[in-house]
Design a protein that fits this description.
Elements lengths: L2 H14 L2 H8 L3 H15 L4 E3 L4 E3 L1 H29 L3 E7 L8 H11 L3 E7 L13 E5 L8 E7 L2 E5 L1 H7 L12 E5 L7 E6 L2 E6 L1 E6 L2 H9 L4 E5 L4 H6 L3 E3 L9 E6 L7 H20 L1 H6 L1
Parallel strand pairs: 3-4, 3-5, 8-11, 8-12
Antiparallel strand pairs: 1-2, 5-14, 6-14, 7-12, 7-13, 9-10
């Protein structure tokens, strides 16, 4: 039996001076009340109540427990009420992990909009291109791009990410425009650092995956500097379209190999378990799914394909 339940039973007996009245208040038998008090006395190793056939009174130890247990139980009841509010009403702090590149896109605006809807929810945003350990980092939800290899995580897909291979027009004029992914082997590539010293870019040819080794002229842990270098004409870059859409629209970067880019790169929200999530986390997941899918449907690039 939980110690809190034993203490609650003891307090009922002490308050009413009777095992029978305590049993009635608790909707249990008198024998159960007597058993619980005896178990509590055994755990503490001290008598808490003086008993006779006609009355019940507190010992000194019982009086001490009655006094000290009141604020403890009040704290437990307050905490229980707050936890129930967390389960039913979005409130508290959410810890979110996301890649650095998402800080340059719509994520900050989406989070601001979410906080506007839920003023009692606070957010801690951790940006890193390393895969976060949700348990170790106490992360409520992580936003990730690409296949999720951890079977212990719950994955909610938010958007299929369009990818693009692009470079400055001057770069293509100087080095030639590839018409097949294998031709990238002769080009300078600007690559993500996590791909290592021998990076490969994955494409789809005739419905099958094709990994093409590329020569990295520069790598970085974050895509923004690579985009800037690509704009200066020093290599090709392969990344989500949304990160370079303004440069594509202006013609500062020119896309190639559009028929071969991989189509399995999802932006997903990942978290640890389906059950007993806070109301704040449930609200955020639903919000992101609704807003990101809506913006995806309304995006100009999607509209052109329909």
């Amino acid at each position: 039996m939980d110690s809190l339940d034993l203490i609650k039973t003891f307090r009922e007996v002490a308050a009413h001076g009777s095992f029978s009245l305590a049993a009635t208040r608790l909707s249990v038998s008198k024998a159960t009340v007597s058993k619980y008090v005896a178990e509590l006395e055994t755990r503490f190793g001290v008598r808490l109540l003086n008993r006779s056939t006609r009355s019940v009174s507190l010992t000194d130890a019982g009086a001490l427990l009655l006094e000290r247990s009141k604020p403890m139980l009040e704290m437990v009841e307050l905490t229980q009420a707050e936890l129930q509010e967390h389960a039913s009403q979005p409130r508290g702090r959410l810890r979110i992990a996301a890649p650095h590149g998402m800080a340059q896109g719509e994520l900050p605006l989406l989070l601001a909009e979410f906080m506007g809807y839920y003023p009692e929810v606070d957010i801690s945003l951790a940006l890193s291109n390393r895969v976060s350990d949700l348990v170790e980092g106490a992360i409520d939800v992580a936003l990730r791009v690409g296949p999720i290899e951890d079977d212990n995580l719950i994955v909610r897909r938010l958007r299929l990410m369009e990818l693009v291979v692009c470079a400055a027009p001057g770069y293509w004029d100087k080095h030639g425009t590839p018409v097949h992914p294998t031709q990238l082997a002769g080009h300078a590539a600007l690559t993500a650092a996590h791909q290592g010293l021998h990076p490969q870019w994955r494409f789809q040819v005739d419905g099958k995956a094709l990994d093409v080794p590329v020569k990295s002229r520069m790598d970085a842990t974050e895509m923004t500097p690579l985009i800037q270098v690509a704009l200066q004409g020093f290599g090709a870059i392969y990344l989500p379209t949304l990160m370079v859409q303004p440069h594509l629209d202006s013609g500062a970067l020119v896309p190639v190999l559009g028929d071969f880019v991989r189509g399995d790169m999802w932006l997903s929200a990942v978290y640890l378990q389906r059950r007993h999530n806070s109301a704040a986390l449930r609200a955020l997941l639903d919000f992101l799914e609704t807003r990101i899918k809506t913006s995806d449907t309304d995006s100009p690039s999607r509209a052109k394909k329909r």
